[in-house]
Backbone:
């Protein structure tokens, strides 16, 4: 096996020599993201803790820490488009899927060939996810799925979805759910984008009308989907916590809900002529400390809800500082930034609404991936051992529960 120090040199070589050439001349966030993932996979760095037979390296925690150390601030922001596939769906398939599912989906997912979405929330089941009503019925060698999902990020670009559906109406609501892999490109899957106040359609509502998938495309056990759903949510909260802090002064993306990097806010304060403002300097110092805290949370492998809550706090505070630098005009803020090549050739001035996007978008950090209130309940019950709130829905058959 490669030594830890040899692996460190391998990662440094990838970022210093391989990645710049892989991204050279590629424009557009989608194409750059695909090129990034392909280069990562082709050089053996896309699935460090995955089995070798499914495209991984079988490396342990020490190697993962080296990757975190050496990649901090160097991962392209375009990687956010793979957050659901690489950060959530692939680990769940790896840990709970059959060998056939692993062989079918892990290599393409890790390489970025396939984009994924997550179909959990419904119009009538958000924080109370277990009350979902989308159903899946077995018809011979296929499952037939009907229902509606909402707030589905990236569904309009996805090839596959991780789907939760009810497979037993007579079981209590947490025990009659299964997790599936749903092909998106088929009749019966209708994706309708939802326009946010940022002007971007990141979310979608999805109408499913007798869509079909193979009988064996179940992740985990039939009617055991709640366990896999919770496992996936753990991965989601991890990537929306510590792993969201990857931006640099030059890495700008209007995608996802990652906090504005402090390096960009320092540069913004300088351009606004306020880098000596004691209030701004204090806030920048506070945000710098926050970035380090989120990084340490990730390194210590604490409960993922802790990182998620800190990510939300950091993101909203960073957006508030950006707004303060723009005064009342921040929601409609457009600034001029220089664009050109790295050799100092002639540059041109372009309008950019990057900061106004993040100022408007940051409030969603308290909602996506589970609300702040849900995170605190999770920490209270699962980390601190506090009793669950009483209710009749734990043992009552789902079809006997009152519905809205």
Residues:
């Amino acid at each position: 096996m490669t030594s830890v120090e040899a692996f460190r040199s391998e990662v440094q070589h990838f970022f210093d020599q391989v990645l710049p050439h892989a991204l050279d001349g590629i424009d557009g966030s989608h194409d750059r993201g695909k090129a990034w993932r392909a280069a990562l996979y082709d050089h053996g760095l896309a699935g460090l803790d995955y089995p070798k037979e499914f495209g991984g390296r079988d490396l342990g925690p020490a190697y993962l820490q080296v990757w975190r150390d050496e990649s901090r601030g160097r991962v392209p922001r375009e990687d956010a488009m793979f957050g659901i596939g690489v950060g959530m769906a692939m680990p769940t398939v790896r840990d709970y899927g059959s060998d056939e599912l692993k062989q079918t989906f892990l290599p393409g997912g890790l390489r970025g060939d396939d984009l994924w979405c997550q179909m959990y929330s419904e119009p009538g089941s958000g924080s109370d996810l277990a009350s979902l009503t989308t159903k899946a019925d077995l018809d011979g060698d296929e499952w037939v799925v009907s229902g509606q999902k909402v707030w589905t990020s990236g569904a309009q670009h996805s090839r596959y979805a991780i789907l939760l559906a009810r497979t037993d109406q007579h079981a209590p609501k947490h025990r009659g759910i299964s997790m599936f892999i749903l092909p998106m490109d088929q009749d019966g899957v209708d994706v309708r984008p939802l326009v946010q106040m940022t002007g971007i359609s990141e979310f979608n509502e999805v109408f499913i009308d007798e869509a079909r998938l193979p009988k064996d495309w179940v992740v985990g056990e039939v009617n055991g989907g709640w366990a896999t759903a919770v496992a996936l949510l753990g991965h989601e909260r991890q990537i929306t916590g510590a792993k969201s802090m990857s931006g640099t002064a030059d890495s700008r993306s209007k995608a996802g809900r990652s906090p504005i990097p402090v390096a960009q806010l320092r540069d913004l304060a300088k351009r606004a002529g306020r880098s000596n403002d004691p209030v701004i300097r204090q806030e920048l110092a506070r945000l710098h400390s926050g970035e380090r805290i989120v990084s340490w949370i990730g390194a210590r492998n604490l409960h993922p809800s802790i990182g998620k809550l800190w990510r939300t706090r950091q993101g909203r505070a960073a957006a508030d500082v950006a707004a303060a630098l723009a005064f009342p005009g921040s929601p409609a803020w457009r600034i001029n930034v220089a664009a050109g090549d790295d050799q100092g050739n002639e540059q041109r001035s372009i309008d950019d609404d990057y900061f106004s996007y993040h100022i408007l978008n940051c409030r969603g950090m308290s909602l996506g991936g589970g609300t702040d209130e849900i995170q605190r309940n999770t920490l209270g019950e699962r980390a601190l051992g506090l009793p669950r709130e009483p209710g009749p829905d734990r043992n009552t058959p789902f079809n006997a529960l009152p519905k809205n």
User: Anything to note?
Assistant: The first helix runs from residue 4 to 23. Residues 220 and 227 are 8 Å apart (CA to CA). The chain has three domains: 4-111, 116-225, 240-370. The beta strands are 116-119, 135-139, 142-149, 160-166, 177-183, 189-194, 203-214, 335-339, 348-352.
